[in-house]
Amino acid sequence: MRRRGRRNRMSKKAGALVVGAVLLVAVIAAAAVWLFPILTVKSFEVVGNDHVTAEDVEQASGVPKGANLARLDAREAAQGVAEIPWVESATVSRAFPSTVHIEIVEHEAVAFVRDGDSTVLVDNHGKEFVEAEAPPEAVEVTGHTDSGSPEMQAAVDAVAALPAPIREKVSALEVKDRYSLTFRTKDDKTIFWGASEDNKNKAIAFEDVLKLEGESWNISNPSLVTRR
C-alpha cells in the first residue's frame, strides 16, 4: 500500500511537471511571437471598397509590409483608413499567419450639391463628404442645402426612398424648406413631394406618375395623387 501511494504521488508530480513545462513553452512561444517578427505582414485583404482603391486603403492603414502582425494596432489602423473621404467606417483585424484584413463601409452618395465649379457629394445622413463626380443615381439638391441641416436631411431621406434606377430619371430636387420638396425629372415632370414623411408610399406614387401623362403632380398625400 505504501509503495502504491508513493507511486501515485510521483505520478502526480510528474504530471504537474509536464503541465508546467507545456505552459512554459507556450509562454516563451507567445513572447517570441510578440517580441520578434516571426509572423510578419505579407499581404492585405480589403473588402467593401467600390470608390477607393485597395492600395489607398493599405497606405491609409499605416501598416507596412514586414511589420509584426502580432503587434498590429487594429484600432489605430482603422482610424487611419476612416480618414479617407469615401470611407464611413473601417474595421481592421489579423488573419494569421500573414494577412491584414480590412473591411470598409463607404458613404452612400444619394445626392450632390454644386459649389461653384465643384460637385460635392452628400450621403444618406445629409453630410457632405467629398468633392467628386456624381454617380448616376445621385440627385442634385438645390435651395436650402446646408450640410447636416434638417432641410438637407429631409431631402436625402426623400431621395433615398427612391430606387436607384428611378433616381437616375431625376434631374434635381428643390428644397424650399423641410416641408416643401419638389422633384424635377429629366422628361420635364414636376412632382411635389411635400414633407419628408410617408416616404415609402410616396416613392410608390412617384413611380406611378412617371408613367402618366401630365407635367405637374402632387404626391404629398400618396393616397390621393393629383395633377397640379
Topology:
Blueprint: H1 2-35, E1 43-47, H2 54-61, H3 74-82, E2 87-95, E3 99-106, E4 111-115, E5 118-122, E6 128-131, E7 139-143, H4 150-161, H5 164-167, E8 170-177, E9 180-185, E10 190-194, H6 199-210, E11 216-218, E12 226-227
Parallel strand pairs: 1-3, 4-7, 7-8, 10-11
Antiparallel strand pairs: 2-3, 4-5, 5-6, 8-9, 9-10, 11-12
Helix pairs in contact: 2-3
Oligomer: single chain
Question: What's the mean pLDDT score?
Answer: 87
* Proportion in β-strands: 25-35%
Task: Indicate the CATH class of the largest domain.
Answer: Alpha Beta
Which runs of at least 5 residues are low in confidence (pLDDT < 50)? Answer: 16-36
CATH topology term of the largest domain: Rossmann fold
Give the SSE order as H and E letters.
HEHHEEEEEEHHEEEHEE
How is the biggest beta sheet arranged?
9 strands, mixed
Portion of residues in helices?
25-40%
Based on Cα principal axes, name the global outline: elongated
Number of distinct helices: 6
**In total, how many domains does the architecture comprise?**
2
Structural class by helix and strand composition: alpha/beta
The value of Rg in angstroms is 30 Å
Strand order of the largest sheet: 6-5-4-7-8-9-10-11-12
Tell me the CATH architecture of the largest domain: 3-Layer(aba) Sandwich
CATH homologous superfamily of the largest domain, by name? Cell division protein FtsQ/DivIB
Using DSSP, what is the number of strands?
A: 12
